[in-house]
Write a structure and sequence with these properties.
TPR repeats: 58-91
Largest sheet: none
Organism: Fusobacterium equinum
Number of helices: 6
Pfam families: TPR_1
Protein name: Tetratricopeptide repeat protein
Structural class: mainly alpha
Shape: globular
Radius of gyration: 18 Å
Strand content: under 5%
CATH class: Mainly Alpha
Keywords: Coiled coil, Signal, TPR repeat
């Protein structure tokens, strides 16, 4: 009986982990950890996964723009910030980041 309960517990636990990995938050949090270590490529990879699960997410788009800018991928960063402003026109952080990006790009 203990073995059966152990198997049931593992199945339930694995389903919970699988379900967790299917939300935008899971890769987003992983990306934040990569950002802390300045592993921009890995952060971008996780943020793109998160974006695929929730395309209009303000947090994901802003972080993705930041990571692309850190990699010097100005056009991709610009696209992210512009998309934030398309969905959320009053977002002052996205406006400021886009201005800074455009200033640095022209220097």
């Amino acid at each position: 009986m203990k073995k059966f309960l152990g198997i049931v517990f593992l199945v339930i636990l694995s389903q919970g982990i699988y379900a967790q990995e299917q939300t935008w938050e899971y890769p987003f949090i992983k990306a934040l950890n990569y950002e802390e270590r300045q592993e921009w490529n890995l952060a971008i990879e996780e943020l793109e996964k998160s974006r695929a699960l929730q395309e209009e997410n303000l947090f994901v788009l802003k972080e993705l723009g930041y990571c692309y800018a850190k990699q010097g991928e100005w056009e991709k960063a610009k696209e992210c910030y512009e998309k934030v402003l398309f969905f959320y026109p009053e977002d002052s952080n996205a406006k400021k980041n886009l201005e800074i990006l455009l200033e640095n790009k022209t220097k």
